[in-house]
Each structure stands twice: as structure tokens, then as C-alpha cells.
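If you are new to this repository, start here. Below is one unmodified record pulled from the training split, so you can see the exact layout before writing a loader.
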Amino acid sequence: RSAPDLELALPSRENTLLVMEIADLSLDYDRNKKLPLYGKWQIPEAWLFDISHRRIERHTEPNLEGYTRVEIVQGYGSLTSTVVPGLTISVEAAMG
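And here is the target side for that same chain:
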């Protein structure tokens, strides 16, 4: 593709509903640096898959400092997206 075509294909904050981060060694960086930026950029929802603790975090209600609402599940729990209809992910399915 040419450069203009690639620019049209790249996601932006205006067309991004959900971001997912998979973290093991990068957990602190993802949670404390990346997620606050996604909230500041008004990405409606961000999920963090915490591999080492076998849990999933769903961050919603973005603001200038990050997200005001965080829901965490582990074990046999699951989360459903607030912005993508029909998207439900369980810890078991995500991490085996």
C-alpha cells in the first residue's frame, strides 16, 4: 500500500472503542503509563490481561487522569465489554 492508504488504515482515538493489553513483565508500565494515556485520549474501554496473576481488568469511564471505573475478575470469572456488543472473555479462555 501507499503511505496515504496506510494512514487511513491506522487506528486513531476517534475510531477506537477498545484497547487490550497483555501484560507479564510489562504489567507496571501497562497499568501505570499506557492505561492512563488511553483514558486521557478518551478511549472508551481498556482491558488489561494480567498473565502473572491470571486476572483481567476492564477500565471504563475515561477522564484526563485515566479511568474512573475498574472491574477485575480472576479464577473462573469473566467480563463483558461495555462498548463491543457480544464480547465476553473469561479468565479461563484467555489464559487456559
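Two things worth knowing about this chain: The helical segments are 3-9, 27-40, 91-95. Strands lie at 18-23, 45-50, 55-63, 66-74, 78-80, 88-90.
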